[in-house]
C-alpha cells in the first residue's frame, strides 16, 4: 500500500470508526522496527562479550568490552546497540569498559513494543545489572530516555547526547500527520498513549532539565531531518552547563560514525577523571569539534 493510499484509508476509517482506528494507531506508535546490524557493527559486536539479561520482564541482549569505568551506549527508536560501536575502540583505548544493549522490541532482545519511559526504565536496569556506568553516550530517542533516566535517579559523571528529541508531543503530532489521522481519532490515540505511559508533558526534556546536575555535551547536525536541531538547542539552553556542538552534513545517523564527533565525545568523558588515571590514548587524526555558544 502506498503512503497516499494508507493516509486515505486512515482518514476514512478514523472518521467513521475513530475508536477502532485509535486502537490500531496506538499499537503502531509503540511498535519499533527491528533493524539488522550493519557489517561494520557486526565486526565490533562479535568479539564483544555477549549475554542475555532478564530485565523489565524481557530478555535483553547485552555486549561488553574492555576494563575500567563503564560507559553505557544507548541506541534510539528502531535502532540497535551496534549503531554506536564507533565509540567502542576509542573508549576501550582510553581505559574504559563499554556496555551496549538492544532495548526490548529491538535487535536480538525479546518483546514487541516500546516507548520513551519504558526505554528509560531499561537504561536504569541495564546500568544496575552491569555495575553502574561512569558515563553514557546516547542517540536520538535513547538520548531523551537517558535524560529521563538521569532525572529518575541514574547517576553518571558525564552524558553525551547525540541528536536528542526534546518533546514527545512533537513525535505524536508528526506520527498523526504522517498517517493522516483525523482529529477525533488523534485525540483518542493520545488518550490511549497517555494511559500507557503517563502525561506526555512529563517527558519534555527542557521542562525538567534545569534540575539536572550531570555535565552534558550535545551533538546535533544542522541538517538532521529526523530530529530538528532546534530540539538539541532547546535542551542545551535548559540544561545547566550544557555545551552544544553543531555539525554540518552528517544528518541523523552518520553523526554516530564521524571521527571528529567520536573524538570530541571521548575527550569530554575522559575529562571527568584525572589525566594520570588513564593510559595514553592516540587521538583521532581529525581535528576535534568545538562547542558553539547558543544564540
From TrEMBL:
Gene3D superfamilies: alpha/beta hydrolase (3.40.50.1820)
Coiled-coil ranges from the UniProt annotation: none
InterPro entries named among the record's database cross-references: AB_hydrolase_fold, Hydrolase_4
Residue ranges occupied by any Serine aminopeptidase S33 domain in the UniProt entry: 71-196
Pfam families per UniProt: Hydrolase_4 (PF12146)
UniProt protein name: Serine aminopeptidase S33 domain-containing protein
Organism: Hyalangium minutum
